[in-house]
Predict the structure.
Amino acid sequence: MKLSTLGRGQAARITSVHHVPAVIRHRLAVMGLIPGTAVELVRRAPLGDPLQIRLDNEQLIVRREIAKLIDVEAMS
C-alpha cells in the first residue's frame, strides 16, 4: 500500500522508498522517512494535497505525489 492511501488516524510502517528519485529520497531520509519508520496520517488538505503525517514527536507535510511513491504496511 502507498502512504497516500492511508486513512485519517491510520498508522503504518514505511517499507520502501526505492522508487523515489535519489535527491528526494535523500531529503526524505533527512526528515526521518526511511524504511522501518512508523508514521500516522494526521490529515489531508481539502483537495487531498498535501498530507500531514506524524513521525515520532514531529509532524511533517508531504506532497501527495511523493506519498504515492512511498510503500507502507498498515500497523494494527
Q: What stands out?
A: The radius of gyration is 11 Å.
